[in-house]
Specification:
Order of helices and strands of chain B: HEHEHEHEHEH
Oligomer: heterodimer
Shape of chain A: globular
CATH superfamily of the largest domain in chain B: Rhodanese-like domain
Strand order of the largest sheet of chain B: 1-5-4-2-3
Largest sheet of chain B: 5 strands, parallel
Distance between the termini of chain A: 23 Å
Distance between the termini of chain B: 63 Å
Strand content of chain A: under 5%
CATH architecture of the largest domain in chain B: 3-Layer(aba) Sandwich
Low-confidence stretches of chain A: none
Number of strands of chain A: 0
Structural class of chain B: alpha/beta
Number of helices of chain B: 6
Mean pLDDT of chain B: 95
Order of helices and strands of chain A: HHHHHH
Low-confidence stretches of chain B: none
Largest interface: A-B, 37 and 30 residues
């Protein structure tokens, strides 16, 4: 039996991988947006803690960002404007990663990053706050978004 | 076919519109032009006004954890940390009730402690103003500090 290794393009073009990434990335961001949409003032309080922008710009971020996450998530799940939705998510992830790096470099302790929940953290944990886990997770999500942005090559019939 | 920037712009713009609409009409929104910590009844003053009040003999209260007050504070400020309010208030109450010009501050716009302390004082019948953006705003303005 002649087995050959799949090329990178074939792996990326695999429709099951594309579907899994779309549903996974879109579902994550849609889920992450819900609590922030339900409690925008609580999310604003969290954005303040990052101390990246002043209170009024932070208010705008708190009000707008969750809806962009939700919209991009829905578009990915529905398979509409897939590459553009993934590109918007990729842009947000790059900003999140840079902001997290800034928070860590300045030694600011943010117990709840506000990524998926606005609930007050009773016990600080490495997976809820701003730290290396957050950066690593966002890099993985960014990788998924980049795969979805890449043009799919049509195979000759 | 490349990524269409117009579609990306449409996603961002639609998200923004939905966000503003939700903030305005959902009943869960808040005032965007001021800190979310500000509630009805809070008196928030700018550093220049706070400095003027200090010059007129105002009493400043430091709502940060006590260690921060120990490192440095506004001249004459007393420590009234939010995390230890009841105990600290009990010790300061006679002095606070004899003062009619009080300003509370904490560690910046991300800190809600000064708002909480001011409200708890108000519950006890003591009026206090809140320094907008707290200690960093005071030091950035070049106002005096005690170490």
């Amino acid at each position: 039996m002649d087995r050959r290794r799949l090329s990178g393009h074939e792996v990326i073009n695999n429709r099951w991988l594309q579907l899994a990434l779309r549903l996974g990335l879109g579902g994550f961001f849609l889920y992450a947006s819900l609590d922030k949409i339900a409690a925008p003032a609580a999310f604003a309080r969290i954005v303040y803690q990052w101390q990246v922008v002043g209170p009024v710009p932070a208010n705008l971020v708190a009000v707008i960002l969750p809806w962009i996450e939700a919209l991009a998530g829905v578009l990915l799940i529905a398979g509409l404007w897939k590459r553009e939705a993934a590109a918007v998510i990729a842009m947000m992830l790059v900003v999140f990663i840079l902001a997290a790096g800034s928070v860590m470099a300045r030694g600011i302790d943010v117990e709840n990053c506000g990524c998926v929940s606005t609930a007050k953290v009773e016990e600080p944990s490495w997976f809820k706050g701003v730290g290396w886990f957050l950066v690593a997770r966002n890099l993985v999500l960014l990788g998924a978004a980049v795969v979805l942005i890449l043009p799919r090559q049509r195979t000759a019939s | 076919m490349g990524v269409r920037v117009v579609r990306m712009a449409a996603i961002l713009a639609s998200g923004a519109l939905l966000g503003f609409a939700w903030n305005s009409w959902s009943g869960r929104g808040f005032v965007l032009g001021q800190s979310v910590f500000v509630q009805a009844g809070d008196e928030v003053i700018e550093p220049a006004e706070a400095k003027a009040r200090l010059d007129r003999g105002a009493l400043f209260l430091d709502a940060r954890p006590r260690d921060f007050w120990t490192m440095s504070h506004v001249p004459g400020a007393l420590s009234l940390p939010e995390e230890d309010f009841d105990k600290a208030f009990a010790a300061l109450e006679p002095k606070l009730r004899a003062t009619f010009n009080i300003v509370v501050y904490c560690s910046g716009y991300g800190c809600e402690a000064s708002h909480v302390v001011a409200r708890r004082l108000r519950e006890k019948g003591i009026q206090a103003a809140i320094l907008s953006e707290g200690w960093p705003a005071w030091t950035d303005a070049g106002y005096p500090v005690t170490k």
